[in-house]
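Lab intake sheet, docking and co-folding queue.

SAMPLE TYPE: protein with bound small molecule
LIGAND NAME: 2-acetamido-2-deoxy-beta-D-glucopyranose
LIGAND FORMAT: SMILES
REQUESTED OUTPUT: full 3D complex as structure tokens
PRIORITY: normal
SUBMITTED BY: R.K., bench team

The fields below were copied directly from the construct record.
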Amino acid sequence: VMFCRLRTHQWCFIIFNIMLFHALLFGGDLLEEYFLHSLPVTYTDMKILKIREKARKLDMDPLKTNMSKSYIISSSEVCSDREVFLLVIVCSSPENNTRRNLIRRTWGNVTGIRGYAVLVLFALGKAASEAIQLDISEESQKHGDIIEGNFLDSFENQTLKTVMSMEWTVTFCSTARFILKTNEEMFVNIPSLAEYLLSLRTHLEDIYFGRVIHQDMPDRDPQSQSFVSLSQYQEEYYPDYCSGTAFVISQDVARKIYIVAKETPVLVPPDVFVGICAKNAGIIPIQSSRFSGKKHIRYNRCCYKFIFTSSEMKDELFKEWKEISDGRDCTLLETYYGLVSCRVLTYFDKFKHFNMETIKNEALHFTN
Ligand SMILES: *[C@@H]1O[C@H](CO)[C@@H](O)[C@H](O)[C@H]1NC(C)=O
Ligand SMILES: *[C@@H]1O[C@H](CO)[C@@H](O)[C@H](O)[C@H]1NC(C)=O
Ligand SMILES: *[C@@H]1O[C@H](CO)[C@@H](O)[C@H](O)[C@H]1NC(C)=O
Ligand SMILES: *[C@@H]1O[C@H](CO)[C@@H](O)[C@H](O)[C@H]1NC(C)=O
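RESULT FIELD (auto-filled):
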């Protein structure tokens, strides 16, 4: 009865608020779509053109035998003679066998979507101890999904691991149409990501998308583990890059990055390195808000069926995975409600986190 009595301007106000709420919550998604379709760009820079030409002509076939010798475990056959639609490379640490098993039993247990093959592999560096190395060899024989590079798996060597992933892809899996690079702390919804990739009909080249980090600055604190000195990187800002938690590239981008990486010996974090290589090859990162970046998205079944990733997944992943993959679809309304609720709750978490940090800093200030 009350609704009937509302005046026009009151209705306008309500509708305006509903629209504002949705624009704030979902505006990013719409822009992202727009940018993905505004490609491709024409390149005039000679350096970029040369790199792209080199990438097009790249032939790894003669190098295959030699290449497989430079890995401790090369798994060089897992991708040969098959059409892979989506290759998923999960960067993992040698010790973290429990985590890999959890992924194998949950989100990583996908071999195809609608007849398109999906392949999930783990990328490791060399283990620090002989005992762990033996475990890894055993694990590799059992599951056949491990790539182990010939470098020590340390914090500083993570960029090497990313470069290795690119090298492995262009050498041993050159038929993979898309490559998702992620790491072991993530939850990835492969079906929803693959469905999205299948829906892209045009511009299947130069794809580099994920959660874009804009105007990030190098860590100039000499005490920090991720310290980047001026000699390592001179400029004030990094170019835009996709968060290393999870991003997708197309095969041609893997080739371009591989070509540039050989000529760009910079010591920066792995995701920044990919961003620098992409920029030098004339590739623009594309933002997708369905990637979480470093955020943990609060669990909600219908929300998790829609998003691509969430960070900091705990071990209860198994229970949640069963619920997500039980085959029950979400209606449009349920998805809508799920998205609104998990987005609002995630903002709330971020806000709480932010406030806790501020309180802690204030307290430190006070005690000092
Ligand atoms: C492979 O390595 C050997 C020795 O390191 C070298 O002689 C040979 O030319 C290499 N083959 C290719 C195709 O590069
Ligand atoms: C993967 O899923 C299939 C059923 O889809 C199941 O039979 C199999 O045991 C699962 N694998 C693992 C390692 O849990
Ligand atoms: C990176 O790997 C190389 C090759 O194994 C090794 O010599 C080097 O010490 C590693 N760097 C760090 C910082 O662990
Ligand atoms: C294994 O991975 C999980 C998730 O990223 C992490 O929380 C844990 O600390 C890791 N454990 C080791 C031994 O690296």
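REVIEWER NOTE: The chain has a mean pLDDT of 86.
SIGN-OFF: pending second check by T.M.
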